[in-house]
Amino acid sequence: MLIPDPPVPARIEHISPTLYETLLGCPARAAWLAHGRRDALMPHPLALLGICFHSVMEAVQKGRVLGSDEASRVAARDLFDESAAKIHADAHPLLKTKFPSPEKMPFYNLFRERAAALAAEYCGRLDREEASSSAARSITAEARFSSADGLIVGRPDLIDLQQSEVIDYKTGLSAEDGWEVSEREARQLSLYVYLANESGLNLSRGTIVRGNGETATIEIAPDVAAAEGQRARAALTAYNTAVEDRSFFDLATPAPETCRMCPCIPVCEPFWQASDPTWQGVSGIQIEGTIVGLESTTVQGTPLVSLNVDASRGTLGAARISIEQIPIAWMTADGDRAPTAGDVIRVVDARLVNSEDPVVVRADRIMTSVWRLAPDNELLS
User: Which pTM value belongs to this model?
Assistant: First the structure.
């Protein structure tokens, strides 16, 4: 696959909690989120399933999921499938090559059932409120909030006014910091509290609900939430000031943690300039080098190729590396030709098998992608 061009950075009109967190790490990655082509790079499948999950919660709020426990679960599953089908159809060709249907994506059923369970829980809360003749709804899901100046926006998963609480569901399988609320999660919850308070609500705490139902809660005073709102504004202002006459590469701030699971790695020249073997444990196995040999084979009807690469940059450093049995369809998913000797490639998110000489890596079905850098004369032809 040919490496696509990075986006041209442009102003961002308003900032969300997700974009705020990204800006704190790398403005270039924020530019990609705001202005990059969604079909240019393959996203992590779990990120797509997270979008499907939140689409179900939004549908619940809009009244498209109703009824008994089982009826609401069935409706939620149908909506999840509908969202997944649309996202899959618009996804990068590599994702569709690896996973020919949405149901083939890893953890599909787990995310789907989690969405169904939470939809049923939400509908049950509404039923209990109506049964108790509550004067006003105390639960709000996926409502869009905006600061008074319109610069900060967000959609908290759930707001419980009786508990003065914002709830954010994390579909991941593990916590970032044990079962406590991590620093980044605390910033997100604080922004949600700030936005809700700006809209006239009175919230003072935030809760993270993990994918397995575990929860973690923090108290959030109004002044703490307001201060986070001011920091988010400052981050947005700093970005919009810096973006003038700057390229995507100018905005990049590569570092091991910042680049962990970043979708921009294939296109980010500053990453390849900065990364080294000390980044492996955090940023994963990333390789740039020249193909010096190929060996083709077929296993169970699937054409495969093993590549011998003289690596020059990346988290394995300079080394002769054998990259074993990559499906050729993965490398031609975008219509590009198969790689040949002499091509410079970037192998993203591989799996290390042997770190001693000879270094051996293998492709990971979920995340690995192989990108070709086109020579200047090929780009001009």
Answer: 0.85
